[in-house]
Amino acid sequence: MKVLVACEFSGTVRDAFIKAGHDAMSCDLVPTDIPGPHYQGSVLDILNDGWDLMIAHPPCTHLAASGARHFAKKIADGRQQQGIDFFMTLANCNIPKYAIENPIGIMSSKWRKPDQIVNPWEYGHSVTKATCLWTKGLPLLKPTNIVDKGAVWVAKSGKRMSQWYYDSSCLPPKEREKMRNKTFQGIADAMADQWGKL
Predict the structure, then answer these.
(1) Which pTM does this prediction carry?
(2) What residues have CB less than 8 Å from 77, skipping those under 6 apart?
(3) Phi, psi of 23 (to 5 degrees)
(4) Which residue from 7, 87, 69, 93 is spatially nearest to 42, judged by alpha carbons?
(5) Which tens digits make up the pLDDT trace of 20-50?
(6) SS3 25
(7) CB 118 within 8 A of CB 131
(8) Which of 143, 132, 124, 104 is nearest to 184 (CA)?
(9) Burial of 169 (0-12, 13-18, 19+ CB in 10 A)
(10) SS (H, E, C) 45-102
(11) Quick one: which of 99, 97, 92, 93 has its CA closest to 115?
């Protein structure tokens, strides 16, 4: 199967599909962290190149509920609409099967509810990080290794967050962003194993 992994620099999902025997390529505006088939540039350049499956990770900076306090400014200057438009360009592509992932955010109301919400703790990682999946032509992803949900940190405001997420707050901004954007290996492996067999 010819697989496009859109907006991925880590190579995690790409390499899971390659390991499962597929012709997979990642694409991002920045270089890949791990050597392998990678298109550095806009996914729009290659979106119509005859892919069988796309796993897409569009930027969530202007869409995620975690940044709601900045929404007014992002709506006013057009950044949020740009994020919505890019997400919808991927959703309206001609690729027969796809999964588009994003955190809980505005796409549930701007477009439609996600088909599924997955967490790393369902795939062998003791971390809570709810990730929405909007799919076309794919079954729901089945949990592969349910473990404990991991430690939770409670802020003075009462807001609860995964200890993993809190710990990453101590990293420099660029490293923090890369860590939080990387797909957990257990989820990548489940995608390759379950969706790669279709």
Answers:
(1) 0.90
(2) none
(3) -90, 90
(4) 7
(5) 999 999 999 999 999 999 999 999 999 999 9
(6) strand
(7) yes
(8) 124
(9) exposed
(10) HCCCCCCCEEEECCCCCCCEHHHHHHHHHHHHCCHHHHHHHHHHHHHCCCCCEEEEEE
(11) 99
